[in-house]
Amino acid sequence: MLINLVDQDTYAASGPPHEQLRWLREHDPVHQHPGEPGFWAVTRYDDVVHVSRNSELFSSARRLAIFDEVPEDQLALQQLMMLNQDPPEHTRRRSLVNRGFTPRTINALEEHIRTICDDLLDNCSGEVDFVTEVAAPLPLYVICELLGAPVADRDKIFNWSNRMIGADDPDYATSPEEGGAAAMEVYAYANQLAAQRKAAPRDDIVSKLIQPDENGQTLDENEFDLFVLLLVVAGNETTRNAASGGMLALFEHPEQWDRLAADPALARTAADEIVRWVSPVNLFRRTATSDVILGGQRIRENDKVVVFYGSANRDASVFTDPETFDIGRDPNPHIGFGGGGAHFCLGNHLAKLELRILFEQLAIRFPKLRQTGEARRLRSNFINGIKSLPVRLT
Ligand code: HEM
């Protein structure tokens, strides 16, 4: 079976190629991608977890781009980001930023997030685009709240994040130069924010992260600015697409929407099921640090090892009825936030809280919510995204 897992147009037309991924899980789980020597697609749950938890063999730091190599000038900057580091460099930074994202710190934000969500929904009525009016602003406003950024700066931050993501989609397409320029603007903005909080600390994450921890360790200025940059990229697009992909899944499974409308408390398990079902991050790359056997295949040093989260999340050896979207699924050991290694999503509690509040509020306020037009998908093999989803809020 000839399988192309990277064709952007396939993703734009119909989303991740689930049929082909299922075939691979069953017949060729560590798949040498045609026409891409040294590119391996890892599709089974256990193998994705193994790769994610074994950073000595599967590095996040050796080259980064999933398909092409990153030009030298961008490489240096990217390698300074936590996402692109291996232990021990990664460990120090991660433990410094973890303090801003503990379940306790995040749960304390619940009322703020509820207010942001209520305000957004108060301003929506009748026919709207769910993506632009609800799914996109919610995570953005929450990140602004975390950073203590003024309301007046929200549009600016939104625009930077869109330009940086620079998806391979003609509607968003930005040149690498434009994306780089936006990144520099976020970097400068973070610098300014840190200086303001140093002079006058507040009760926000910026103030927390620029203070030394209990061992007297702190992020230096450069590390802090890069972290803000990572937050703006990692926290926006992912949650936006979980929300819009979740909404679409509920439209496609109306009996699940009816369940939620009848019992909005189901939003708690629905949040996890949405992340499993949508898997907003399709894949991530690691690089083999030496020759290694994985799933019976001989991987060579420096080969690209690409883990497919959306495929792992439908692995029948782990999930009962994996092709069933069930908002009450419990337990739900999905790996939509990563396979549990050093890089496991820092924002997972936050994302789940946002999704729970959003879907609970939608079910309470708009039990007859309906889709009124076709969903348009993002042209990207990296993010499982939706660009527009017309709905009627009733
Ligand atoms: C890392 C998914 C929301 C911040 C990751 C990874 C995935 C992921 C797959 C990589 C895991 C790995 O390599 O093992 C998601 C999904 C989200 C989401 C599906 C929403 C549904 C967020 C939010 C934030 C965030 C809201 C922050 C506000 C990060 C950061 C990392 C990360 C900083 C890098 C962690 C590290 O390198 O140690 N996320 N994410 N994410 N995520 Fe998320």
TrEMBL record:
Superkingdom of origin: Bacteria
Pfam families: p450
InterPro entries recorded: Cyt_P450, Cyt_P450_B, Cyt_P450_sf
Coiled-coil boundaries: none
Family: Belongs to the cytochrome P450 family.
Protein name per the record: Cytochrome P450
Provenance organism: Nonomuraea longicatena
